[in-house]
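B., you asked whether I could sanity-check this one before it goes into the benchmark set. Here's the sequence:
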Amino acid sequence: QVHVQESGPGLVLPSQTLSLTCTVSGASITSNNYYLNWIRQPPGKGLEWVGSISYDGNTYYSPSLKNRAAIFRDTSKNQATLQLTTVIPEDGAVYFCRMNDDYWGQGTQVTVSS
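And here's what the prediction gave me:
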């Protein structure tokens, strides 16, 4: 059974870098046709796709965030990390990791505030 879990700090200072990790169990992130997706939901708003990393390491980003977002992976740990630089209060949201369209993590709340 595939399990996806997000982790990271709940509070980030404005202008700092947010780093969130997605850990997958029950499947390998390098398996053919697997994609890890980062999605966020700001308070009172809908879901917003942030970016994705493919099974072979290619990355894709939302045009609105591509200058600040980066996704890395550690295949030895079966993890992918989202980094978002120069955060602003509007980056505060629940961040989800999703494997393909099927497996969602529970989400992790991020607040950007001084």
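One thing to flag: The radius of gyration is 13 Å. Otherwise nothing jumped out at me.
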